[in-house]
Design a protein that fits this description.
Distance between the termini: 28 Å
Largest sheet: 8 strands, mixed
Number of domains: 1
Oligomer: single chain
CATH class: Alpha Beta
Strand content: 5-15%
Helix content: 25-40%
Order of helices and strands: HEEEEEHEHHEHEHHEHEH
Structural class: alpha/beta
Amino acid sequence: MTLLRAALLAAAAALASTSPVQAASAPQAGKPVTYDLWPGTPPGGGGPSGPERIGQTGTGVGAVSNVSKPRIEVYKPANPNGAAVVLVGGGGYFRIGIGHEVMPTARWLAALGVTPVVLYYRLPADRWPAAAPFQDAQRAIRLVRAHAQELGIDPKRVGVLGFSAGGNLAGIAETRFADAFYPAVDASDTLSARPDFAGLIYPVVSLQKPYDTTRSFRELSTQGDAVQAYSVELHVTHDTPPTFLAQAADDPIANIGNSLVMFDALRKNNVDSELHVFDKGGHGWGLGDPGSAPSAWPRLFAAWARRQGFFNAVDAGPFATPAATPATQAAPAAASDDAGNDDDN
């Protein structure tokens, strides 16, 4: 059993329920249903060889790389409220923080009744084109809407939540939704790619100077116009969906200026937005260690999403207070992705 498999089983146990499914093809509570993003070969060419890899050491534990089959995994909450969130892990476009960031957040969202949608996107570091992750995110949002009825999802309450480099990916998804990142492949591509709301958590927003020091910048720079194409703040308009941002002022990886320039662009375009800056916390905190300043962000995000009308207006005691992440289950070694540094922005 790989480390990622252990994490997914833990998530399944946390979401388990005897509630009936809503349709024959809908996922049972706690058991994910998987949709490949593309019916055939993904657009753009390129890609890795060999199996998908799961990080085993350092900050890469549970992180996924060498993705050759981009896909979404959808978990059905025990008591779904109709909202869905596409979860985009960070990792500098060379890996995806599934174990540390995405799965704990998926368990927390499911406890609120929100349907978590885990995105496995293609990585430029794996010899995919720089546009590949943006193609995958756009397609994922459309597929969620295409399968909304069988999943019990309201197609007008589909959000995106990204961490670090995943914040860059989520940011481009929410600002460049009208751009055709790929030719239409089927009827799903007639649906809107615009998320209804977005959360950007310690995000990489800008590739412009002085924010061009990240691994995200390096990996996306294989595309000549990457700075213009993938600096999120340059694409904000009045049609950008409501956006929540959270970051620590002492973030050593993604400078706090990333959130500040994004918030400024949102306000200038009259987009409903909320920014929380924590004095300390660093980078890569996921849900946040219990008692730390960043651990407040899930509560703040859930309250914001309720006020915006995307989550249920249910306010129970543990509503937005995630439990401490359980210790990682032991698992036999799997193919690892520990090469390179731990810069996951």
